[in-house]
Specification:
By secondary structure, this protein is mainly α. Helices cover 61% and strands 3% of the residues.
Length: 383
């Protein structure tokens, strides 16, 4: 019954248009849906949308037949429709625009011959040997508009599928984002912005160097060479510092005092290690321990502030020239450097000489310095 009513409405509208072309406004008022409000679009039901398409089809046919201002008035098209996509009145809606039809009606107010005359023949279809597509006339465009409106009407007759909500997919996505690997996600903070600005400044700096090099070749080369020299100098300085720190590791791993200054280990312990090494005839190690026993003793007396990073020559430079212990420390330092760093072999005589110097620097008696090691050392020396 509804389909028959729609067919009767279309036939009546077409009949009125064909019989009275000048009454297009009346046709629009009768057939086209009523407009509520003055907005550019309106919320329309599917029935209102079908009625609007029927009226637009009748208006297009009337405009194609009359081709005058009254029949092709763009205001007769009415507002755009916002039609529901899914089931229900509160569901998602889609905006159907009719701007293309308004523009076509404004062009159709003149006949094809008048348009061709006003354009100086440019609207005439191209010749057959031209590679450009033929320009369609306004009459042909009106026929296309009727076909488009008929296609839109046919789409309204097909059953609409419900818009998928993707509920299960949304729940799965929420579960994934709630996982442990996404918990540390955070927004950009001030530190990230600061790093980005620093990177941008560096990029601008090098871009400026390249532009300056393009304008003045020698200036650009000088800046680039200066930058490379500064980087190389920094690397060399860092390597020297690293080499110096490794060089001051005076004791092999497992035998040394560990981290910290020499005074962090009591000088009596250094002296006990020297006695043990001398009893085992390890003279180089014994001299090594004697030297650090003297350094630990002097640091404990506040001769200089404790610092593990000093070299033997730096310890010697801290002694005042007028200090009577400077000569003894210089001799002990020379013996220590020759045997420990220089790799020269040492004997008992070298150890005895170093022991006398260390005893004088530590300010203890010779008997206390030798103690129980003198007998094993003398006995081993006899062999």
């Amino acid at each position: 019954m509804r389909m028959m009513l729609r067919a009767d409405v279309r036939a009546a509208a077409l009949l009125v248009c064909l019989l009275a072309p000048g009454s297009a406004k009346a046709v629009a008022q009768v057939v086209a849906p009523a407009t509520h409000g003055s907005g550019r679009y309106r919320d329309a039901s599917m029935d209102d949308y079908r009625k609007h398409l029927t009226g637009l089809s009748a208006l297009t046919q009337a405009c194609a037949k009359a081709r005058d201002v009254d029949a092709c008035d763009p205001t007769l098209v009415g507002p755009d429709d916002r039609v529901p996509v899914g089931e229900g009145t509160n569901g998602e809606r889609r905006l159907v625009r009719y701007g293309w039809l308004r523009v076509l009606f404004s062009r159709a107010e003149e006949t094809d011959e008048a348009q061709e005359a006003s354009s100086g023949g440019r609207a005439r279809p191209n010749s057959a040997d031209s590679i450009r597509p033929r320009v369609r006339t306004t009459s042909q465009l009106l026929e296309d508009a009727e076909a488009r409106l008929a296609s839109d009407m046919a789409q309204t007759e097909t059953p609409r599928e419900a818009v998928p909500r993707h509920t299960s997919e949304s729940n799965t996505l929420r579960q994934v984002l709630a996982g442990r690997e996404f918990r540390k996600l955070k927004q950009r903070d001030e530190r990230d912005s600061l790093l980005e600005r620093a990177n941008r400044w560096i990029n601008h700096f090098f871009e400026g160097l390249l532009k300056m090099r393009a304008r003045s070749a020698w200036v650009g080369r000088a800046l680039i060479l200066g930058f490379m020299l500064a980087v190389a100098t920094g690397l060399v300085w860092a390597l020297l510092r690293l080499e110096r720190r490794w060089r001051v590791r005076l004791v092999p791993d497992g035998d040394g005092p560990g981290s910290g200054a020499a005074s962090a280990r009591d000088w009596q312990l250094w002296l006990a290690d020297a006695r043990e090494a001398a009893a085992a005839r390890r003279w180089r190690e014994a001299i090594h321990f004697l030297y650090w026993a003297a350094i630990s003793r002097l640091e404990s007396k506040r001769v200089w502030p404790a610092d593990r990073a000093r070299t033997p020559r730096e310890y010697l430079a801290l002694m005042a020239p007028e200090d009577a212990r400077t000569a003894s420390l210089s001799s002990l330092t020379g013996t220590f450097e020759r045997t420990w760093y220089g790799g020269r072999s040492a004997g008992e005589g070298d150890y005895r000489q170093a022991e006398e110097l260390a005893v004088g620097l530590m300010g203890i008696g010779a008997g206390e310095a030798r103690g129980p090691m003198s007998a094993p050392a003398a006995e081993s020396g006899a062999h």
